[in-house]
Amino acid sequence: MASHGEEDLVATTTAGFKVGEKKTLEEYTKLDQEDDSLNRWKASLGISNSPALPVDPSDTRRCIIRSLGLEVEGRPDIIIDLTAPGELEKLKSRPFTIKEGAKFRMKAVFKVQHDVLSGLKYLQVVKRNGLRVGKDEEMIGSYPPNTEEKPTYEKKFAQDDAPSGMMARGHYNAISKFTDDDGHTHLKFEWSFDITKEWK
Questions:
Q1: Checking DSSP bridges between strand 96-99 and strand 131-143, what pairing results, if any?
Q2: For the whole model, what pTM was predicted?
Q3: Which among 10, 57, 134, 176 could bridge 126 via Cys, Cβ 3.0 to 4.6 Å?
Q4: Could you give the CA distance from residue 40 to residue 13 in angstroms, rounded to a whole number?
Q5: Alpha-carbon gap, residue 31 to 39, rounded angstroms
Q6: d(Cα 69, Cα 84) in Å, to the nearest integer?
Q7: How many whole angstroms separate alpha carbon 124 and alpha carbon 178?
Q8: Hey, CA dihedral for 40, 118, 63, 177, is it positive or negative?
Q9: In this model, does residue 43 exceed pLDDT 80?
């Protein structure tokens, strides 16, 4: 497989946008407690008084992608449990099969720990025969650490249509990355899929 250049997996930026000053979850909770509109904003982010999930202090990751899924209309979901050893490595050698013209979407289940995660994004580059045929970027959002009340988050991405026609059928390679406003890469992986005339 042709190597994927890092320049392909760079998030788009808005001219003049600067990431705001970092605050801890405790600072956000105490911020202008008497301001109703700010309290509604904090509630929309999920910042609550629910007890935080216990975290291993030696695990410094802020975002843990626990599973990836593929939803296809009229078919059972395909779920890859990334907590199982070796599953991520198998993605590249075990292509998904998608029938041409099918409607599908990706989804991710993830956990946030230690601090508020700002601007989580999903980036994906698809290549066929070494040539880039697609690039997608999906804003997932900002999230506080998970709590006992909300132990994980799930994000379903925008629905897409598989290409169709004889020229579209074949094998595709992809590389995907979860990143955030601070430029931290939380997960990067390679995978592949086949577009076929019929389901296999």
A1: unpaired
A2: 0.80
A3: 134
A4: 27
A5: 9
A6: 14
A7: 9
A8: positive
A9: no
Mean pLDDT of the chain: 84
**How far apart (Å, rounded) are the C-alpha atoms in residues 176 and 140?**
14
Residue 16: exposure state from Cβ atoms within 10 A (0-12, 13-18, ≥19)? exposed
CB 75 within 8 A of CB 179: no
**Is 192 exposed, middle or buried (CB count within 10 Å of its CB: 0-12, 13-18, 19+)?**
middle
**What is the percentage of the chain residues whose pLDDT exceeds 70?**
77
What the block records as the tokens of 3 is 């190597």
Over the stretch 104-142, which tens digit does the pLDDT of each residue have? 999 999 999 998 899 999 999 999 999 999 999 999 999
55, 113 Cβ separation under 8 angstroms: yes
Class of residue 175 by CB neighbours under 10 A (exposed 0-12, middle 13-18, buried 19+): buried
Q: Which amino acid is at 172?
A: Y
Place of tokens 């946008």: 17
Can you name the residues that pair with 163 across neighbouring β-strands? none
Residue 70 is predicted with a pLDDT of 92
Give the span between the Cα atoms of 75 and 50, in whole angstroms: 37
